[in-house]
Amino acid sequence: MGTCMLSRVADSMYWMSRYFERADHCARVLEANYNLMLSPSNVSTEQRWLRIAACLGFQPDASIGDPQLAMIRMTSDTKGRASIVSCISSARENASQVREQISSEMWERLNQLYHETTQSGLRVQSDADPLRLVTTIREGSYRFYGVTDQTMNHDEGWQFIQFGKYMERACAISILLDAHFSAAIPEEDLEWVGLLASCSAFEAYCKVYTADFSPERIAEFLLLNAEFPYTVRYAAERMLAALDAIAEASAVRRPARIERTIGQLRASLAYSHIKDIIAGDIHQFLYGVIEQCWQLHAAVHELYIDYPIESAFEA
Amino acid sequence: MAVISQASGNLSFNPFAGYHIDTAYDEMFHSEGLTRPHYEHLLNRLQSVSIEDLRRSKQEADVSFFNQGITFTVYGKKEGTERIFPHDLLPRIITGAEWRTIEEGLTQRITALNHFLKDLYHERRILRDGVIPGEIIYTCKHFRRQMRGVKVARDVYVSVCGTDLVRLPTGEFVVLEDNLRVPSGVSYMLTSRKVMKQTFPMLFRKCGVRPIEHYSQVLLSTLRSLAPEGRSNPTIVVLTPGVYNSAYFEHAFLARQMGIQLVEGRDLVVHDNLVYIRTTSGLQRVDVIYRRVDDDFLDPLAFRPDSTLGAAGLFNAYRSGNVVLANALGTGVADDKAIYAYVPKIIRYYLGQDPILNNVETYLMADEKERNHVVENLDKYVVKAVGESGGYGMLIGPHSSAEQREEFRLRILQDPRNYIAQPTLALSTAPCFMEDGHIEPRHIDLRPYVLFGEKVTVVPGGLTRVALRKGSLVVNSSQGGGSKDTWVLQD
């Protein structure tokens, strides 16, 4: 029975992973948009930052008009919980609660990244500093994901890490797509390239479609491609695979409504055609994905983490 | 016996130059230049290597400690509070014969103290017979009225004990204090042995050092032997206050070594007087809890209502015999420093034997005559608060200022029951490797670990703590102390 996993430990691993992925996503989006902003564009700076703020969960404030200020706020403001530094701190806080359960390499990487980002977060002065910070995060995240896969048992705890990471990614990309497709902003090629860059998907896209950018293809790629890690479908498939592995390891029976949600999510991404999605209501479609992710999040919490003790005795 | 000056004749640098022995007992030297026989292998080794080699060994050992994450948390400082436990390169060596006395003495002591605890919480014969005044028990803040009449598994109250011993100038080991609540430090004993085996592999062979690596297995079987009846495959867990506790590393280390879950209070659920841990596979019943949380914090319903470190209802489940806590609740009454003074009487009362290990002479401030004498001569005594540990709440007379003495005089007069005094002891000294490459004597003590389940086991070794500051007598890690590996030799 030594293989049982404490609910608290599973929960900390899940949140460690989600916060880490959130910081990583935030860094990619900021990097892509900071670069876009340097070229003349139909999109005003204010429109751009409003859109980013909405995607990343920031309340718009006066800093929106000033790209430098906005960048500092989104990278290193620790008063809010959405900045990169705040997300890394939250990830580290959760990791420190389960330091004995993750590998020491994982802890070291995360800890190192925390110290690097908090230090450079304090020092943002020149206009190149924010870009340095987001590069640090991106590089740091490749390393962290690498050691996570290579140094930890791929047991139930690892599955909770995968579940958190891909849950966060599936939602974040959906929100990003929604912001671009439902925006009243005039979209031009450069903006679509920016969207691909926000998902580190530029090269991967070109390999499939050549450097021919159409909103429909970009949507198809980021939403329905099953082979690239930064797409909604890939993330959702991985998330569901982790969920199945958790169900098997814990031997807890999933209620029918959860099975239904899982099936719907899997089918809608595997069998939908992009033309139908766009001809219909893409906002509704993306919102449906996010909604289903949230149902799974709540279901996992209720099944494995914070279940009422009465239900535990019925079984 | 070897004489240093001869052996080191061909060396340009003698690391022992400037090693001076004073009135304290020195573990390595009989008198200046005259080595005790059981230290000769170490001496030869030290004289056959260069100072650079020793320095490198020291660095490697430090790196090894760092990589293993052997750190402790210092309270009252902000971030970066994790420090490596300072570790001395040279082992402290104890002969087989010396160890036998220690082992017998500790076994006798833990046996008597367990009888004493059982008696206190049941018949109270020792009080009725007038051996110990009842007042001193009832005024002890670690006495738990709630434990009256509670049946404890195997009648073992103290199953894990770390007793602090010091060595007097005569060479005799005496007991300085008993730690019967949640003694810590055993992880340092185990990890420092691992590091020393990498540092001095051949020396281990030559000296015939007895192994200690089985401590975790013995601890596990001790805990298993306490499991409630009928629970043939008991679930055993370590309960920690959490990652912010100074001994968290040790809690995690022991859980890992024993292969059992490390849980926090919030992982526990009590239902119908049964205790469970909340796992992703549902609730799992718990049978034995090796708790590293103090009595006060175990159950907000029974003890401190503001505690979040325990579980509501745990005490009732414990009282019903459905779960075992090790150590039992209420053991703190027996390591109160005022009750410590009565331990020799306790041993005679329950076992009809003379104590094998003596106490340090102790004056109770509750006693008017003793108090008057001590208060007039505070510069000669060490004064300790009875319920404190870790070197807090202590006055070391000879090293104190007039101001500090006045403060303690007032404190004693205000609350005499809370203080005891002991003569300032010249703790024994052992050679320590200093940063400048010299070897100098530093004061040490010894904390062996005693386990009591089906039977008493004293793992041959312990934590030797070192007062690393020159002349200092305080060995606590929170006060600038370090540690040494402790080698007990085969005969």
Tell me what you see in this structure.
The complex is a heterodimer of chains A (315) and B (491). With 315 residues, chain A is mainly α. Chain A has one domain (7-314). Chain A is 74% helix and 0% strand. Chain A has helices spanning 7-36, 45-56, 67-76, 84-97, 104-122, 129-151, 156-181, 189-198, 202-209, 215-224, 232-250, 256-271, 274-279, 282-305, 309-314. In chain A, helix 1 runs antiparallel to helix 8 (189-198) and helix 11 runs antiparallel to helix 12. The longest helix of chain A has 30 residues, at 7-36. The radius of gyration of chain A is 20 Å and the shape is globular. The relative contact order of chain A is 0.11. The mean pLDDT of chain A is 89. With 491 residues, chain B is an alpha+beta fold. Chain B has a domain at 361-423: Dna Ligase, domain 1. Chain B is 30% helix and 21% strand. A five-stranded mixed beta sheet of chain B has the order 15-7-6-22-23. In chain B, strands 9-8-13-14 form a four-stranded parallel beta sheet, with helices on one face. In chain B, helix 3 (51-67) packs across helix 7 and helix 4 crosses helix 13 (343-351). The longest helix of chain B has 26 residues, at 96-121. The radius of gyration of chain B is 23 Å and the shape is globular. At the A-B interface, helix 1, helix 11 and helix 15 of A face helix 10, strand 9, strand 11 and strand 12 of B.
Termini Cα gap of chain A: 18 Å
Oligomer: heterodimer
> Helix tally of chain A?
15
Summarize the main sheet of chain B. 5 strands, mixed
Helix fraction of chain B, binned, reads: 25-40%
Outline of chain B: globular
CATH class type of the domain at 361-423 in chain B? Alpha Beta
Output the structural class of chain A.
mainly alpha
Percent of residues in β-strands of chain B: 15-25%
- What share of residues of chain A is helical? over 70%
Number of domains of chain A: 1
